[in-house]
Amino acid sequence: MARREVSVLFFLALLCKAIAIRSQPSTIDASFCLSWRLAVETNNELPWRTVPNKCSQYVEDYLIHGQYERDLELIMEQALDYVNGISIVGDGKDAWILDVDDTCISNIYYYKSKNYGCDPYDPAAFRAWAMRGWCTAVPPILKLFNKLIDNEFKVILLTGRDKEILGQVTIDNLHNQGFIGYERLIMRTNIYKGQSAVTYKSNIRKNLEDEGYRIWGNVGDQWSDLQGYSFGNRTFKLPNPMYFVP
Amino acid sequence: MARREVSVLFFLALLCKAIAIRSQPSTIDASFCLSWRLAVETNNELPWRTVPNKCSQYVEDYLIHGQYERDLELIMEQALDYVNGISIVGDGKDAWILDVDDTCISNIYYYKSKNYGCDPYDPAAFRAWAMRGWCTAVPPILKLFNKLIDNEFKVILLTGRDKEILGQVTIDNLHNQGFIGYERLIMRTNIYKGQSAVTYKSNIRKNLEDEGYRIWGNVGDQWSDLQGYSFGNRTFKLPNPMYFVP
């Protein structure tokens, strides 16, 4: 073979190796970030403040390139199966609880500007973002929401967002994203300020039970949506590798 | 370029593509199985009886090729950090609870013969396997175990294994795998037969608390090790994509 062809083959072999490396599933970082994501989602890593810097690209890929959506879809399939198996009492007290941020509507666009959670939490910037009302619906959860409304459940949206500051914009944002027909939107008022999400949300759910509601299901992206007490007959933990709410 | 060289290049291009496909991270099945594993580990998929057939190879790869071990190591790093931050009271009542199967000692070798959980649960075959006493230590958990002993915690092993049938072999198996110096091995006796793991283990832990034990930590591969009541100050969920214990 001529020298020129040998060079071409050598170049091709290099290219080939480069492609193989690029498409390998487990570089050391990807493997670490996958372990980290599992630890976070199973509530083992606790509390955590920021995404490890070396996982910024991993978290972006996860959120943007389909795996996050497939994870949500599989969980919502489970939720829909469960909904289909419930015989409601029908007295207007059959309830589901849904969290708002990164459950019904997404903050991924905002977190992109914060390195997908590698930058520390920035309450002022987050408030400014939420004030715009630009959050987009999370499609698989909107589908569950509509199914619940169709099946005559009372859907109660329960969020740690401050009612005074974010009340109207949250109502508008939910409405313009298709969340229409819910029973109540419960936001944090002054008397709950300073409480952890677990305490605040448990308190609210207990009050709902005292009003006679049966909480059939409870959906949130944070374990603090689903722990404490009165957390409902079944809980669904959605993935969120961007931030942790205690 | 001569026809022969063109053929060589064409063959190389094909080979190159084949390598790239083989090492691609996300075929449809791998992506589904990753979603399924997340759903299982976050207790969203519930209850589940067998691993989906199309995930048999995925689960084998996960368990055998390093990711499972890295997942365990990261969780145990968290646990060790937590241990190092505890000031024990030192009255002999500072306790940790560890599950046995697929927490301290591994059944992966057995589950290999059951298609890594794709085949249905087979109580007789599992009992025959356990009777051999061939389970191997799970290294990151043995490391935690030894650290707990060194730090003068009382380590209590709590398992759903039947005491009458598997008592002696379990003691021997734990011993030959290096689990030496624990406070108690609590196994299921007749009065707990028929109870779910959540009920049985909660009962036992409550009894331990009534004896004065403070449960600082609780480690298990099943959510039923960590839920119910008296579950301890902090829980650590280890991965197990092979089977589900209600």
Automatic annotation (TrEMBL), chains A, B:
Q: Does the keyword Lyase apply?
A: no
Key words of the record: Glycoprotein, Signal, Storage protein
- Would the keyword Magnesium be found if you checked this record's keyword annotation? no
Checking InterPro entries in the record gives: Acid_phosphat_B-like, Acid_phosphatase_pln, APS1/VSP, HAD-like_sf, HAD_sf
Q: Name one GO molecular function term.
A: nutrient reservoir activity
Q: Which residues form the signal peptide?
A: 1-20
Task: State the function annotated in the UniProt record.
Answer: May function as somatic storage protein during early seedling development.
Q: Which family does it belong to?
A: Belongs to the APS1/VSP family.
Under which name does UniProt file this protein? Answer: Acid phosphatase
Q: Which organism is it from?
A: Pisum sativum
The root-end lineage is: Eukaryota, Viridiplantae, Streptophyta, Embryophyta, Tracheophyta
